[in-house]
Amino acid sequence: MNVFLDHQSATPLLPEVFEAMKPFFLEAFGNPSSLHQHGLRVRDALTKARRQMAQLINAESEEEIFFTSDGTESANLAVKGVAYANERKGKHLVVSATEHPSVINSVEFLEKQGWQCSRVPVDAFGRIKPSDVEAAITPQTTLVAVHHVNHDIGAIQPIAQIGRLTGEKGIPLYVDCESSAGWLPIDVQAMGANLVSFSPHRFYGPKGVGVLYRNRRARIVSILHGGVQEGGRRAGTENVPAIVGGGLAAEIAGAQMSQRAAHAARLQERLWDGLKSRIPYIKLNGPEPGPDRIPTNLNISTEFIEGEGQLLSLDIAGIAVASGSSCVSKSLKISHVLAAIGLDHALAQGNLILTLGKDNTEAEIDYVVDSFARIVTKLRAMSPMWDEFEKGIIDSVIAPTGRGKSFSAHAADVSGKRAH
Amino acid sequence: MSDAYTLYNKTVMDHFMNPRNMGDIKDADGVGEVGAAACGDIMKISLKIKEGRIEDARFKTFGCGSAIASSSMATELIKGRTIEEAFKFSNQEVVDALGGLPPVKIHCSVLAEEALKAALEDYVKKNPEAPLPATAS
Fold first, then answer.
1. Which residues of A110-136 are buried (b: 16+ CB within 10 A; e: fewer)?
2. pLDDT recorded at residue A419
3. Third-level CATH fold of B10-126
4. Angle formed by the axes of helices A307-316 and B10-17, nearest 10°
5. What homologous superfamily is domain A257-415 in, according to CATH?
6. Helix/strand/coil (H, E, C) string of chain A?
7. Residue B132 confidence (pLDDT)
8. pTM for the complete prediction?
9. Beta carbons of A416 and B42 less than 8 Å apart
10. Which of A292, B31, B91, B106 could form a disulfide bond with B113, CB atoms 3.0-4.6 angstroms apart?
């Protein structure tokens, strides 16, 4: 059986979206900047897609929608574009500690150029406290950037509360909605957001297009220099077929949102119930399934075994998942989100991220639970940590027995250095 | 089974999926357990040594696919070697025998070398009367 549980990274294109895109590769190949028939035809198509995107997030006007190449570019444009446009007002930014790397690394880039940045901590479930955001704001703050839903652990943030206080202070609020768009209702006006980014490939649209919503209350400058596409905010020829496909995917996602979300929520519950009943010493990271967590995401830590081995074994069983373990990252660092929620290093190492989609079935979920239970048993049999736990040399973090030392203390003893 | 594309080469995947010499040795003559500060992996190698030669080697690993494959291959390679030969063991042998590892995973093979050396040192410590190779002290 093949089971795709990595919808956070990609979703398959809807067949009707593919059909809608096709003419824009062959007959309607014009450049929307051209003034002749070929250009005007695709310009119309872009306007329609802008309207579809605006509708998904309840934007006032399609003129507030800008097309970029992907979520990373949208985040770069939102963070750097607002920072540069307001440079004379102040050089202070507020972000949460668990933003996506495209936001965190944009901020780090600005810090090297003299900006100051406050990183608002999150609680053990990954939630941002609006009062912490308020406390971080200074008279020099020109942007507050928070995510709607966390990309790793699925925590839903209290955006409307944050939006009220940034609104009162007149500071632009950028909300990264990459993980929530198409799955949860987004109302930029109710949120009090001035900038919002999302990408159609998360909801059965194509890759290669990102959307940035920006209203007039947020000044922004272009970070790509060239022509005057996208109202001068984003130079470069638009990826017309992807924009057309993305627009239709947004329209369909809006129409089917409640059914898709309800389906994902049922499977999320079935998956987590199955895993926790079959596998001892397993922990859910982030909020419990319910109003504080997106229904598509489960982030789990299985103790005494490492995440990449779990991921590889699942892949061989036909099950595609992701992991925040250091062994999976090219930098050998655990996910900064898991570090920010204060997760023990041993548990961060045993991390998996499972993200559900509209086409997953109950039979698939049962297969995943069975396969994973088998894989955990196999990997624990190979792990010195499991053996040492059973002998009382090290203790469990998830369900401490009071016997033995911590995994981290043990790891430090055998490596001579403290695990990071 | 889906294995049209693999993260590691076939040899590494084989040693990950079907590890050789996995487990512990009862009454081991030398046991070494080391951790990688870089990533947090932990590897344990147990040795049975008879007349100055490694008769059996077993491993247990908390770590990624390439760490498990590296320890599996290391235990395969060192069986039958003398203590003196084993003290000269290099991680490059593991990398070569596995047909290469991604650059970011080379440290997994270093961990296997370190676990083996720690097990040898444990043996030397427990057997001070044993004939020591020049490199061991």
1. beeeebebbbbebeebbbbbbebbbeb
2. 42
3. Sufe protein. Chain: A (3.90.1010)
4. 100
5. Aspartate Aminotransferase, domain 1 (3.90.1150.10)
6. CCEECECCCCCCCCHHHHHHHHHHCCCCCCCCCCCCHHHHHHHHHHHHHHHHHHHHCCCCCHHHEEEECCHHHHHHHHHHHHHHHCCCCCCEEEEECCCCHHHHHHHHHHHCCCCEEEEECECCCCCECHHHHHHHCCCCEEEEEEECECCCCCEECCHHHHHHHHHHHCCCEEEECCCCCCCCCCCHHHHCCCEEEECHHHCCCCCCCEEEEECCCCCCCCCCCCCCCHHHCCCCCCCHHHHHHHHHHHHHHHHHHHHHHHHHHHHHHHHHHHHHHHCCCEEECCCCCCCCECCCEEEEEECCCCHHHHHHHHHHCCEECECCCCCCCCCCCCCHHHHHCCCCHHHHHCEEEEECCCCCCHHHHHHHHHHHHHHHHHHHHHCHHHHHHHCCCECCCCCCCCCCECHHHHHHHHHCCCCC
7. 61
8. 0.94
9. no
10. B91
Domain boundaries, given as residue ranges, for chain B: 10-126
A328 contacts on B by Cβ (under 8 Å): 64
Query: By the CB < 8 Å criterion, does B4 face chain A?
Result: no
**Average pLDDT rounded to a whole number, residues A129-133:** 98
CA of A99: how far to CAs of A11, A107, A149, A334, in Å? 22, 10, 10, 15
CATH 3.90.1150.10 domain span(s) along chain A = 257-415
Lowest mean pLDDT across A44-48, A109-113, A224-228: A224-228
Answer yes or no: CATH 3.30.390.30 is held by domain A14-253.
Answer: no
Chain B environment of A414 (Cβ under 8 Å): 33-35, 42
Residue whose tokens read 């660092």: A333
pLDDT tens sequence across B28-43: 999 999 988 777 889 9
Q: Tell whether the model's pLDDT for residue A372 goes beyond 50.
A: yes
Residue B137 clears pLDDT 50, i.e. is over it: no
Q: How far apart are CA A41 and CA B78, in angstroms?
A: 70
Rg of the Cα atoms in chain B? 15
Q: What is the pLDDT of residue A332?
A: 80
Per the CB < 8 Å rule, is B61 touching A305? no
Tens digit of each residue's pLDDT (9 = 90 or more) over B45-93: 999 999 999 999 999 999 999 999 999 999 999 999 999 999 999 999 9
Q: Which residues of B touch A305 (CB under 8 A)?
A: 62
Query: What number is the ipTM of this complex?
Result: 0.92
How far, in Å, CA of A405 to CA of A197, rounded? 45
